[in-house]
Amino acid sequence: MLQIMSMMKFLLNYGVDITSFLGMTMLMIPFIVSIIIPFVTFIAIIFVYNKLISDNEITVMTASGLSPRQLARPALILALVLTVLHFMLNVWVVPKTQAMFYSTQWNLRYGLAHLKLQESAFTQLADGLVVYVDKVSGHDLSQVMLSDMRDKDAPMTIFAEKGKLVSTDRGLSIVMTNGSLQAKGDTLTTGTFDKFDMDLNVADKEGENSFKVRRVPTSILVKSVLDSPTEKQHKMVLAELSSRFFGPIMNLILAALCATILLRSSLLRRRASFAPALAVAAMAAVMSLYMSTSNMIESVTDFILLLLGILVVLFGVLFVLFKK
Questions:
Q1: Global pTM?
Q2: What torsion, rounded to 10 degrees, do the Cα atoms 205, 208, 212, 213 define?
Q3: How far apart are alpha carbons 187 and 185 in whole angstroms?
Q4: 101-114: b (≥16 Cβ within 10 Å) or e
Q5: pLDDT (tens place) for every residue of the chain, 324 residues total
Q6: For residue 68, how many other CB atoms are within 10 A of its CB?
Q7: What are the strands, taking DSSP E only, across the chain?
Q8: Per residue in 125-159, is it b (16+ CB within 10 Å) or e — as a string?
Q9: Which secondary structure element, helix H or strand E, spans residue 139, and what is its range?
Q10: d(CA 248, CA 244)
Q11: Are the CB atoms for 315 and 307 separated by under 8 Å?
């Protein structure tokens, strides 16, 4: 919901139509789903098994000869299926949809799609950048006045008979013809021109082609581990790879952890009423440890150690669950 609410500004500030807004929202869904799958798995399992325990159904099934391993099998099967789906999301679907999302967002914010200049009115394109146009025909403009006050030490005012909006890799530019320019710096400069091409520079500093690991295909991300240009990008790549490859395993860990705590506590003579709270606390501790550790990875060695630690936790919980 926070992600969706943050995109509401496209409807309010950039005049984006509702269809484009819904399209951007749909592109965010795979990423959001990839984050919440482990928590949803845990919630489903703790809800079902706690209900079975409170209705004494687990006690009856245990008395009939079923072992904790057999009782936990449905939860583990569910977790295994979701692990496979989660892995597919992380490796293929999320990078592709995130690349589409950032590209669409950049085009809507800084491309021609969002800009709707009103005739005979002042339009503020950015803080300190105002454009007045007498007539608008598509991207062709007549009687243009542009005031650029973004640099307080060098304000600039331009008048032109005609102008045309064009989209470049940097964002919006306006090509003006037959006009005059007045700029103030150390000295006042005035002049006329036949043609003047001005980059409006309303795009963010990162631009569309900035390095965002979330939208990089997994195959390219793996190759970039050894040739990341900066140490910061190297850490970002390793953290993203750990999220893509190890995140799905957390479905199995949380499912096994929840089943172990609930089923083992249900076999006690005095049923542990605090078992659900203990399971939630254990889940929070495991996820906090995993997320903090994955963000602290600095080398391939740390990456391998994290994988080994996750596998040790998984097999350790399964060992306790399957132990007779």
A1: 0.73
A2: -160
A3: 5
A4: bbebbbbbbbbebb
A5: 676 676 666 666 555 667 777 888 888 899 999 999 999 999 999 999 999 988 889 888 988 888 888 999 999 999 999 999 999 999 999 999 998 888 877 766 655 545 566 788 887 777 788 888 888 887 788 999 998 888 888 888 999 999 888 876 666 778 899 999 988 877 888 889 898 888 776 555 444 445 578 888 998 888 888 776 678 888 888 999 999 999 999 999 999 999 999 988 876 655 557 888 999 999 999 999 999 998 889 889 999 999 999 999 999 999 998 887
A6: 21
A7: 121-126, 129-137, 140-148, 156-168, 171-184, 188-199
A8: beeebbbbbeebeeeebebbbbbbeeeeeeebbbb
A9: none
A10: 7
A11: no
Identify the bridge partners of residue 180 per DSSP, sorted by sequence position: 159, 192
Q: Which amino acid is at 187?
A: T
Q: What is the DSSP string of 43-97?
A: HHHHHHHHHHHHTTHHHHHHHTT--HHHHHHHHHHHHHHHHHHHHHIIIIIHHHH
Q: Is the dihedral of CA 242, 243, 249, 252 positive or negative?
A: positive
